[in-house]
Amino acid sequence: MHLKTQLVGLIGHPIKHTYSPFIHNVAFELTGLDYIYLPFNVVPVNLKSAIKGLVALGYKGFNVTIPHKVKVKEFMSKISEEAAFVGAINTVLIEDGKLFGYNTDVAGALETLYTYRQDITGNECVIIGAGGSARAVIYTLIKHFRPSKIHLVNRTEQRADALRQFFRTKMKYDSFTVNELIPPDIKELIKNSSLIVNATSVGMYPEEDDSVLPQKDMFSKDQIVFDLVYNPTQTKLLRLAQSGGARTVDGIKMLVNQAAKSFEIWTGEKMPVEQVEKALLLKLNK
Ligand code: NAP
């Protein structure tokens, strides 16, 4: 590290379990870019001074995680279309002291699901969850794959309904059903869908014996099951889906793809995603 080294980082609270420093620092090493990524534990009361500090220190940008993803909006000079839709910022670029906010979960979801575009386009989907990541996935699906129907499933049904209203107004898409977790007709919904997404934290470490959908006989080879949870890398939901014959997509893929978009925003260069994913899996499966 020397005077020319560019600085990027992460603010959040807590940040103990983040994989972002590993992902970005491996990518900087692989590409030979003179950058370093550092994590900062910032409690909410210090958010404003932490951001001012990063600007004053000449940071090129930073990632934002829980609990600052919404609050950080008030410090931005401009926010991207995706960040406005999702209502949350996870990446900030600093230019001439001005802050530009992005949400790279949308690009991460698109890149991750693009391989399956023919199976998804014009077909039905089940989305479980109604938080920030569900919003990013639904925006991506409507904008790029236009499913014939989206079945929203969430523990708090009103939240799923609010999501439906949002997309009806903002994207003129209203082909939704809204359901509690788990609706009595879940088998039917899943049978008719080509994509099933878990956008809840169910199944995440240390509760890795949990699964939002508990039976393998719900799945078949005609489905793609995408779990956003990335710790553990192979969740119980993915294992059940695989034993039912479905194709599965893990949260690590989206994590690396959304990081790749942040990397590009800061550096203008492409992240070598396959090599980074391989390095991350090697580290996690040690
Ligand atoms: P969020 O905004 O807090 O939303 C959480 C969602 O999970 C809500 O729908 C919530 O339901 C549901 N939920 C939480 N605990 C539950 C339980 N015990 N039973 C049933 N439903 C439950 O969180 P988020 O940002 O959307 O993140 C959701 C998950 O996606 C997390 O595990 C996160 O790590 C992961 N994620 C992964 C990536 C990636 O790149 N792979 C990116 C973003 C997020 P209620 O509405 O009823 O509370």
What is the element layout, followed by pairings?
Blueprint: E1 6-12, H1 20-31, E2 35-41, H2 47-56, E3 61-64, E4 78-79, H3 81-86, E5 91-95, E6 98-102, H4 105-113, H5 117-120, E7 124-128, H6 132-145, E8 149-154, H7 157-171, E9 176-180, H8 186-191, E10 193-198, E11 224-227, H9 236-243, E12 247-249, H10 251-267, H11 273-284
Parallel strand pairs: 1-2, 1-3, 4-6, 7-8, 7-10, 8-9, 10-11, 11-12
Antiparallel strand pairs: 3-5, 5-6
Helix pairs in contact: 1-11, 4-6, 4-10, 10-11
The chain binds NADP nicotinamide-adenine-dinucleotide phosphate.
Summary tags:
alpha/beta; Rossmann fold; 2 domains; 6-stranded mixed sheet; 6-stranded parallel sheet; globular; binds NADP nicotinamide-adenine-dinucleotide phosphate
What's the number of extended β-strand segments?
12
Radius of gyration: 19 Å
* CA(first)-CA(last) distance: 28 Å
List ligands, each type once. Answer: NADP nicotinamide-adenine-dinucleotide phosphate
| CATH topology-level fold name of the largest domain | Rossmann fold
